[in-house]
């Protein structure tokens, strides 16, 4: 085995050592380039995924905003009437606009609430009669209901 001092004086050993160092330097450079390229590809893929997720999230937000917007008063009145009895709208289409009847507490309060909302007076007039009847199926409230033809216009 040669000592370090002897190797420094040997031109062949120094040349070989220089080549080894050069190859290591080039090898590290290539590895660095590969790592940089992989890093850039990964970064682009992450950006692409983030954009896709962001777009999907934005679509969900827009769909939720549309779904949570209050429906127009006319549409809500028609839905409420149809949930109680579709014959209200059928009668209105045939020219009948005054109705009297007994309503369950739930339907009575729903009609009273929706008829008192701003803009409802264009479509409906709810007049409680003050008569409450107790039956085996619960209490009912008597009321008169006037539906205006504007309820039929889209």
Summarize the structure.
The protein has 154 residues and is α+β, with helices and mostly antiparallel strands. The protein has helices at residues 4-9, 11-68, 73-84, 87-93, 105-115, and strands spanning 98-104, 124-135, 138-147. A hairpin with a 2-residue loop joins β2 and β3.
Structure, described:
By secondary structure, the protein is of the alpha+beta class. It has two domains: 4-68; 73-152, 2-Layer Sandwich (Ribosomal Protein S8, Chain: A, domain 1), CATH 3.30.1370. The protein is built from five helices and three strands, in the order ααααβαββ. The chain has helices at 4-9, 11-68, 73-84, 87-93, 105-115, and strands spanning 98-104, 124-135, 138-147. The chain has a three-stranded antiparallel sheet, with helices on one face. α3 (73-84) packs antiparallel against α5 (105-115). The longest helix has 58 residues, at 11-68. The radius of gyration is 41 Å and the shape is rod-shaped. The mean pLDDT is 87.
Annotation keywords:
154 residues, alpha+beta, 2 domains, Ribosomal Protein S8, Chain: A, domain 1, 19% strand
The average pLDDT score comes to 87
Oligomeric state of the chains present here: single chain
End-to-end Cα distance:
102 Å
Percent helix, as a range, is 55-70%
Separate helix tally = 5
How many β-strand runs?
Answer: 3
Strand order of the largest sheet: 1-3-2
> N-to-C SSE series?
HHHHEHEE
CATH architectural label of the largest domain: 2-Layer Sandwich
Which range does the strand content fall in?
15-25%
Rg, rounded, reads 41 Å
Please identify the structural class as seen in this structure: alpha+beta
Main beta sheet: 3 strands, antiparallel
Q: Give the CATH level 1 class of the largest domain.
A: Alpha Beta
Domain module tally: 2
What ranges have pLDDT less than 50 throughout 5 or more consecutive residues? none
Which of globular, elongated, flat, extended, rod-shaped describes the shape?
rod-shaped
């Amino acid at each position: 085995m040669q000592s370090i001092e002897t190797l420094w004086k040997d031109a062949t050993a120094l040349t070989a050592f220089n080549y080894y160092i050069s190859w290591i330097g080039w090898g590290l450079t290539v590895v660095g380039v590969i790592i940089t390229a992989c890093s850039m590809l990964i970064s682009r893929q992450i950006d692409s995924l983030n954009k896709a997720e962001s777009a999907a999230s934005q679509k969900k937000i827009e769909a939720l905003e549309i779904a949570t917007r209050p429906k127009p008063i006319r549409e809500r009145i028609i839905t409420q009437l149809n949930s109680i009895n579709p014959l209200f709208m059928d009668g209105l289409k045939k020219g009948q606009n005054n109705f009297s009847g007994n309503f369950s507490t739930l339907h009575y309060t729903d009609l009273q609430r929706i008829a008192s909302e701003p803009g409802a007076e264009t479509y409906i007039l709810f007049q409680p009669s003050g008569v409450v009847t107790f039956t085996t199926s619960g209490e009912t409230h008597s009321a008169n209901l006037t539906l205006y033809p504007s309820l039929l216009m889209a």
